[in-house]
Design brief:
The structure is a single chain. It is built from 21 helices and 14 strands. It has helices at about 45-50, 55-70, 85-90, 90-105, 110-125, 165-170, 180-195, 210-225, 240-250, 255-260, 270-285, 295-310, 320-330, 335-355, 360-370, 385-395, 400-415, 425-430, 430-450, 480-490, 495-500; strands at about 5-10, 15-25, 30-40, 75-80, 110, 135-140, 145-150, 155-160, 205-210, 235-240, 290, 460-465, 470-475, 500-510. A six-stranded mixed beta sheet has the order 8-7-6-9-11-10, sandwiched between helices. α8 crosses α11, α9 (about 240-250) packs antiparallel against α11 (about 270-285) and α16 runs antiparallel to α17. The longest helix is centred in the C-terminal third of the chain and has 22 residues, at about 335-355.
């Protein structure tokens, strides 16, 4: 459907990024191409006030190539914006004119406030922020954009000259970074934030950050944790991890930083300044929790373009359940069976939650895995549990972190056939605590899949009573449940082993059905 293809180009201080998407209905889209080129458009801008000849040429070359790629996809519309460097440079308008003449691209130079709005549009599209007081920020090479909000209600919006390239060129002259230089940088960021932000700082529950600095932080923390994910979108980390990371980066030379796992060598010279700005931001708002938005401004451009064309539906509250059901439906999963397994799984979970210290997060993982456990049928029946693992792991699921997607994929993978084994790479690369959680929640899901063996929701009520190391399960309904009892007993192995429980099954076919 080439008539539904769009492109967005974000011309930043450090890099130029383009994205090409194919739109579907209801504001959905599929990424066809994603190109990033490091051009350092803001190189030397602080000293001279103008874009250098070398940076100019790099930008023209990158945009010419990206325009040819976009033309190859035959898109119908292009949203192209330039941000801090072009906005600030004395010859920024001349560059915009030259780009139009040489490539045909019409570039819109947007304000810092518009940058912030685009970052917020992307964050609100990707994260559950309803009723949550939060700060959305995007850090580029030249500027730092901030939006403080409660749910969808914006409190304050700022654009500050605190980008990674600008701060590096202004304060960090030595290699490795001298402590005195670093302290001056910190003091400047702190003073700038204190002077500019006039709103209430307390009560902020989380930060949602985008930009190359933020994704680099996530990649380095993930590498340090020994985690490997296909995408870092939705990744979560603590300020304590950021503090340790910054201390390590500041001690190293540029050559040493270039060799660090998770850090793109092209960003090694500006990473200390960028991480310092984020660290000071977390300290300023006294927030311990950072969520990573891998998409940021360029996705905001796509969403803005959809809205302008009336292709983005009226904003409504999104939820993880809605997202998992939508994904399962896209794989033509048996929704009745999935919801029955999720309902029964919830009952067993509630019986065991207190003993194992489980809460809402663990329940959400189990219910979502139950809803999606059979999506592998979309590929084939044979080994569909393994196919489910891969589909869930790579799915773009609203409201879940990369770690949570990995856990759900593993929980679903063990709903049938083999129990977890040391030779299963996807299981053994989890931490010991996560392995145990997968085994226990996977055990619940596995058993409940057996409780709906005929896929007709015969089990209408499930009473669960935990007495020491014995879990009594009483099935209620209006029909014979011998098949379901057999299925549950046959698939109770993982739950018994991981929780060290004995199970007792009973059925009362004519038990009065209670509302769940």
């Amino acid at each position: 459907m080439r008539q539904n293809r769009m492109a967005a180009i974000d011309i930043g201080t450090n890099s130029i990024r383009s994205i090409i998407v194919e739109t579907a209905g209801s504001g959905k889209y599929k990424i066809l191409d994603d190109e990033k080129v490091l051009v350092r458009l803001g190189e030397g801008l602080h000293q001279t006030g103008a874009i250098s000849a070398a940076a100019w040429d790099r930008a023209i070359e990158a945009l010419s190539r990206q325009k040819k790629i976009i033309d190859g996809y035959r898109v119908t519309s292009i949203e192209a914006v330039a941000t801090s460097a072009v906005r600030k440079a004395s010859n920024g308008r001349e560059l915009v004119a030259a780009v139009k003449e040489q490539t045909g691209l019409k570039i819109e130079v947007i304000s810092g406030e518009e940058e912030a709005e685009l970052a917020a549009l992307s964050a609100q599209h990707n994260f559950e922020l309803e009723g949550v007081r939060h700060l959305i920020f995007d850090i580029g090479g030249g500027s730092l954009e901030l939006i403080s909000a409660l749910g969808a209600h914006t409190e304050e919006m700022l654009s500050l000259e605190l980008g990674a390239v600008f701060l590096t060129e202004s304060f960090l002259k030595s290699d490795p970074v001298q402590q005195a230089e670093h302290q001056k940088l910190r003091k400047h960021v702190r003073k700038t934030l204190k002077t500019a932000y006039t709103g209430e700082r307390t009560g902020m529950q989380c930060l949602v950050g985008s930009g190359g600095t933020v994704t680099s932080i996530a990649a380095m923390v993930a590498a340090a944790r020994g985690e490997k994910f296909d995408s870092l979108h939705g990744y979560e980390l603590l300020r304590s991890e950021l503090v340790h990371l910054l201390a390590m980066l500041a001690r190293k030379s540029d050559k040493e930083r270039r060799a660090l796992p998770g850090l793109n060598p092209d960003r090694s010279d500006i990473i200390v300044a960028g991480v310092t700005a984020v660290d000071e931001l977390m300290d300023f708002f006294q927030v311990n929790h950072l969520k990573v938005n891998e998409r940021g401004i360029r996705e905001g451009l796509i969403l803005r373009g959809l809205r302008r064309r009336n292709l983005l539906p009226e904003k409504k509250r999104r939820s993880w359940r809605e997202g998992t059901l939508e994904f399962a439906r896209s794989c033509h999963s048996d929704e009745g069976h999935a919801l029955q397994v999720a309902r029964l799984s919830r009952q067993i979970f509630l019986a065991l939650a207190k003993r194992y210290g489980w809460g809402d997060k663990e329940l959400r993982l189990l219910e979502a895995a139950a809803i999606m456990h059979d999506v592998g049928y979309f590929i084939s029946y044979s080994s569909h549990h393994k196919h489910s693992y891969h589909l869930i792991r790579h799915a773009d699921l609203f409201g879940f972190t990369p770690r949570e997607r990995e856990l759900m994929a593993n929980i679903a993978r063990y709903h049938r056939k083999s129990m977890p084994k040391k030779k299963h790479d996807e299981y053994t690369r989890l931490s010991a605590a996560d392995q145990l959680l997968v085994s226990r929640l996977g055990g619940i899901l596995r058993l409940c899949d057996g409780l709906d063996r005929r896929r007709n929701a015969v089990v209408q009520q499930l009473d669960c009573v935990l007495d020491k190391d014995l879990l009594r399960l009483t099935l209620g309904g209006d029909e014979d449940m011998s098949v379901e009892l057999y299925g549950a007993k046959a698939k109770s192995d993982l739950l018994q082993e991981s929780c060290r429980l004995k199970l007792d099954f009973q059925s009362h076919p004519h038990l009065q059905v209670a509302t769940m």
